[in-house]
Amino acid sequence: MEGKIIRNIKQYNLSLVFSIFIMVIFITIPYHFQAEASYCTKENLFSFADYLFENKEYYRSITEYVHFIFLFPDDPMVKLARLKIAYAYQKGEQWTDAFNRFHELWETYPDKDIGIEALFQSAETLKLQKQYQKALNRFQFFLQKYPEDERRNKAIFRISCLYSHLQEWQKADESFRQITPESKFYPEAQSLAKGAEEMKSLSLKNPAVAGLASAALPGLGQMYAHRFRDGTTAFLVNGGFIWGVVESFAKGQNALGGVLLFLEIGWYAGNIYSAVNSTKKYNEKKIQKKITPLLERCSLSLNGQPQKGKILFALSLSFQ
């Protein structure tokens, strides 16, 4: 009898504990879903995605923007979310994904400001990828489609800098001078136009002249390219072989003379190649010395402009 009472008490306690557990679950579940619902408001979700983007967590921000689009597919801010996804791919250096996203957005909204910005950024993506000719063509296409857009002068500035990357100095000079005086880019564009004009008249060495000079006198072409040590070495080595060939044949040592002559032919040809190559390196070094600060100024002038942030802010306001 006593054992039966104890068993009943244990069963009662288990039932009581289970009932309390069920009550706790039913009490806490509404709060859980309420908190989840609070988090999933469109404002909070978009703000969190922006927070991740601003903190350079680009791939996590993409996930949250996609989450926003999935939950609120009819919200006007979906357009901006798609643009920010493209920006995130661009910042994460996923060039193909970035270009495709920008291009798709432009094709979807070709007459909207967000689509125009997407077309501009598709060209910018090609430039960042160092596909300079394709980027140039894309920016030119942008100007053809939207000749009166507020980004016009910025696009012309980009085109001018791309001509500089391609070392087409005449076109770069002419392009820089197309920027209108009221543009914030005008002062720097005028200065860079002068730099492009200087590059057009940059004095360079002629590789053909260097090759002919070393053919006439070994080492002379290297000295023409300011490679005096190489020139001296080429002169002494080739001179030594030539002297050896002459002496060998003069003394009747034809076999030795033939071997030395064979070796000298190789040294002589190498001497001409070295002269041509030295001249090319001299020119490249001189060009890089001039072009590097010019291209850096191009980048600094554009990076210093807050236009992108203003555009995104204006776009976001248009959806409120």
Summarize the structure.
The protein is an all-alpha fold and 320 residues long.
Folded structure, characterized:
- The chain is mainly α and 320 residues long.
- The protein has two domains: 43-185 and 307-317, Tetratricopeptide repeat domain (Serine Threonine Protein Phosphatase 5, Tetratricopeptide repeat), CATH 1.25.40.10; 207-299.
- 81% of the residues lie in helices and 0% in strands.
- The protein contains 15 helices and no strands.
- The chain has helices at residues 2-39, 42-54, 58-71, 78-91, 95-108, 113-128, 132-145, 152-165, 169-176, 186-200, 207-216, 220-224, 228-250, 254-303, 307-317.
- Helix 5 (95-108) runs antiparallel to helix 6, helix 7 (132-145) runs antiparallel to helix 8 and helix 10 (186-200) packs antiparallel against helix 14.
- The N and C termini lie far apart (76 Å).
Task: Please describe the topology of this protein.
Layout (H helix, E strand, L loop, with lengths): L1 H38 L2 H13 L3 H14 L6 H14 L3 H14 L4 H16 L3 H14 L6 H14 L3 H8 L9 H15 L6 H10 L3 H5 L3 H23 L3 H50 L3 H11 L3
